[in-house]
């Protein structure tokens, strides 16, 4: 790829068409995952390059966070990373106004986590460019999973048809590779996400069904809970990849999951 990587305060911004690899801003910001909650291997140890018999050393996975402004995309990206990389703060206007990416290695798997603005915000200046970049991420030959981020207790009119609009904008069947990520898990109190979905409105139930009933709850304000929830999410991502890509080969970063 071409162009220069722009680094700013520990953040990787998109250059012209090149991505860089950043490190956590400080050790104090790192969320430590419990030893017993070791992150799952996205590509298992038998991953091999088709036709060569050699193991691939660079399997790659793109995790793209999608959803409305204020839904918790940036905070969720930080939870998955294990450190605070994306700007996440209360605001009456969108905080994330362009696509941003960070990298992390999960066992042998290179993972890119992409935080996105709300693509249907008419105030965005680079909306079409950001959408094009997200299209390219799933056409590079890497594994790709979408996390559709929705806040518990807030299901807006715009979210009723968000799946269809995303699929039109990204020109791909997002639902086949989507997991719904419900944020503000602490709002469930003593209840469960399963109970919440059973008693929620029909439109949200239908959206969940369109995404294969794949979902995960996340409490980004509680680090001890978030670590376990991030592990559960990665396990669901691994299962989705196993279901969809077990016989797929990736150019240069080949990864067959058996």
List the helices and strands and how they pair.
Elements: E1 6-8, E2 11-13, E3 60-66, H1 73-81, E4 100-106, E5 109-115, H2 127-137, E6 143-151, H3 157-160, H4 162-170, E7 178-183, H5 193-198, H6 202-210, E8 215-217, H7 223-245
Parallel strand pairs: 3-5, 3-6, 6-7, 7-8
Antiparallel strand pairs: 1-2, 2-4, 4-5
Outline:
This protein is of the alpha/beta class and 258 residues long.
Distance between the termini: 30 Å
Molecular shape: globular
As laid out across the biggest beta sheet, the strand order is: 1-2-4-5-3-6-7-8
Q: For the residues shown, what is the average pLDDT?
A: 74
CATH class category:
Alpha Beta
Task: Calculate Rg over CA atoms.
Answer: 18 Å
Number of strands: 8
Task: Give the name of the CATH architecture.
Answer: 3-Layer(aba) Sandwich
Structural class category: alpha/beta
The structural domain count equals 1
How much helix, percentage-wise, in residues? 25-40%
Strand content: 15-25%
CATH fold-level assignment: Rossmann fold
User: Low-confidence parts lasting 5 or more residues at pLDDT below 50?
Assistant: 1-38, 43-57, 249-258
- Helix count, DSSP H or I runs of 4 or more residues: 7
* N-to-C series of helices and strands: EEEHEEHEHHEHHEH
What is the CATH superfamily classification?
Answer: P-loop containing nucleotide triphosphate hydrolases
Largest sheet entry: 8 strands, mixed
Pfam families: AIG1
Subcellular location: Cytoplasm, Cytosol; Endoplasmic reticulum; Golgi apparatus; Mitochondrion
GO molecular function, one term: GTP binding
Keywords: Cytoplasm, Endoplasmic reticulum, Golgi apparatus, GTP-binding, Mitochondrion, Nucleotide-binding, Repeat
């Amino acid at each position: 790829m071409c162009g220069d990587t722009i680094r700013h305060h520990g953040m990787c911004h998109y250059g012209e068409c090149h991505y860089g690899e950043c490190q956590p801003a400080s050790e104090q910001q790192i969320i430590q995952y419990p030893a017993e909650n070791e992150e799952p291997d996205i590509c298992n140890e038998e991953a091999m390059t088709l036709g060569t018999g050699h193991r691939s050393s660079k399997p790659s996975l793109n995790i793209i966070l999608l959803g409305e402004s204020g839904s918790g995309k940036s905070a969720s990206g930080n939870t998955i990373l294990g450190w605070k990389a994306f700007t996440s703060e209360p605001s009456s206007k969108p905080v994330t106004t362009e696509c941003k990416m960070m990298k992390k290695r999960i066992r042998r798997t290179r993972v890119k986590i992409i935080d996105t603005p709300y693509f249907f915000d008419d105030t965005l200046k680079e909306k079409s460019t950001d959408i094009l970049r997200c299209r390219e991420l799933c056409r590079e030959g890497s594994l790709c999973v979408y996390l559709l981020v929705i806040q518990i207790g807030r299901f807006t009119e715009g979210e009723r048809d968000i799946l269809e609009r995303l699929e039109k904008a990204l020109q791909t069947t997002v639902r086949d590779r989507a997991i719904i990520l419900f944020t503000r898990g602490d709002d469930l109190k003593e209840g469960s996400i399963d109970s919440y979905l059973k008693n929620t409105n029909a439109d949200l139930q239908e959206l969940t069904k369109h995404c294969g009933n794949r979902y995960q709850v996340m409490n980004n304000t509680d680090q001890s809970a978030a670590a376990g929830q991030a592990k559960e999410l990665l396990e669901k991502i691994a299962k989705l990849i196993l279901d969809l890509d077990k016989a797929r080969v990736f150019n240069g970063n080949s990864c067959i999951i058996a």
